[in-house]
Amino acid sequence: MTGLIHTAKQSSTRGMVYAGVMITPSSRAAGRGSLLPKLWTVLRAGYRPSMFWKDTIAGATVAVVALPLAMAIAIASGASPEQGLLTAVVAGFLISALGGSRVQIGGPTGAFIPVVYLVVTQHGYDGLVLATVMAGLMLMLAGWLRIGGLMKYIPQPVITGFTAGIAVIIASSQLKDFLGLQLDQWPADFLPKLVLLATHVQDISAVTLGLGLMCLLAIVGLRLWRPSWPGFLLVILLAALLVPLLNLSVETIGSRYGAVQLSWPVWTLPDFSLARVRQMLPAAFTIAFLAGIESLLSAVVADGMTGHRHRSNAELMAQGVANVASGLCGGMPATGAIARTATNVRAGAVSPVAGMLHALFVLVFVLVLAPWLGAIPLAALAAVLLVVAWNMSEHERIRHFFKSPIGDRAVLGVTFLLTVFADLTLAIEVGVVLASFLFMHRMARVVEFETQVDLLHADEEENEGDARQRARVPAGVEVYQLNGPLFFGITSRLEDLLESFTRTPKVFILRMRLVPIVDASGALALSQLAQRLRDQGVAVILSGLQPQPKRVLENMGMLRNPDVASKGWLQIAPDFDAALLLAEQLVGQPVGQPGAP
After folding, report:
1. Per-residue confidence at 526, pLDDT binned at 50, 70, 90?
2. In whole angstroms, what is the distance from residue 143 CA to residue 146 CA?
3. CATH entry 3.30.750.24 includes domain 3-20+456-587
4. Which residues contact 93 (CB under 8 A, 6 or more apart)?
5. What is the gyration radius of the CA atoms in the chain, in angstroms?
6. Could you give the 3-state DSSP secondary structure of residue 109?
7. 553: pLDDT confidence band, cut at 50, 70 and 90?
8. 100 near 315, Cβ under 8 Å?
């Protein structure tokens, strides 16, 4: 197990330090495992009118983004636009009110499109309701059992390959409406879609294609020219105005679904017979997995943007309650939405009240705009989802993985191909199993070639050499030592480092002489840690890099990344003595006498 050995001058803070070993306090661990909503924490600390004003502005901003996405995702999933809007209102409110993140925004997301479409096609909408409720109960059970922390053990290549595969499925699902094809059935599987498209090329509507391309270019242009503007909403409203103005013969929401009318939700109980539950179990598991993974990933992104820490188990419990309520009200599966959460943070949200207000604003917007929503052309919504699919593809991260060790590339590739051409659940299972075997293979090699290293333990007293070593560290410098492989299973430990600082240092030295291997997830976590420290004005020094970690970091571009490597923010030292000399130059204070071990 990788240990984080604190070798800098450290006094006890909210936690305890024994013989230089950072021990996570039980109270903090309990805090992360707590089911207490962040809303309660915020209200107990004091919620001021100025905070409510910021949350109101953020909630209204996110609602403008969420409104077109909720309709587009619902239509692409084989549901009605009302069901997507209802999910955004009901689930969006509950996820913020009960969740473990201060700024999480919940609702229907693109990740659910392929699984929802398949369930609706094969089992009808009643089957989707049952699967959604079952998934919600699974998530509630996961939160109650305090296993939210286990989600972090899903390897990054599996998540990236899975997400990229879903992006391809979303994009392919929009080709029918984007091209204006008049087809009674559009297959759920990827290859049959391509075959059907190839046989109906002559049926493509030039008018619909032209409108779709115009909307697509307009969205991209607005993002480049005015990124703060609500591009999705502006483009679909513009398209809705152009259709009657130019008398365009294209399919709209109204022509396919009729007038958009968001009525008061009616609670319905699905068929909970044993045979039906068994039939829907795979779909429910996939929905629960997607909701859990995406919500916690979104919460982690929000943590990085705000500096707060989410409560993973409270978040899972909230996702479970929201999905049960959404299913019983006639909605769709919901989870934390990364793009909408990031928009919420950038708009100035400071508490979960912003997410609750976002749901209420969506409701108000629908009630006000309902007469005009039916005029929105489906080609415009298809353009919106094509942009969403591109954003989900994580093309930048995939480029980095191409330079990672071959095993990580294989896991990513297999997960991607199975997601696109086979089955979502199978892709997850095979990807995780493959990554586990790869990890065991790497560990076997380490055990074979590495000798045992004596470690400091919490019950040992600090020896004289440790004391001399600490005395050499200048003020304003923090030093940690990684001991063991830096792989996907322990990357979350790096995120806890910043919380252990009594005060923000000027220089952070990370000793890596005892790190024999680094995988792609470890390199990515290390890069994110360096960037977060850089944002706080802290220079990072990596000392004692072994050949394999150094090669992986170089291949993945971390050591040449201008965001972290420029202007001395990230430097490499061959050993600890050299790192101390570099730190002395950066803080302008001499180190102690050499000679410490």
Report:
1. confident
2. 5
3. yes
4. 355, 356, 359, 360
5. 26
6. coil
7. confident
8. yes
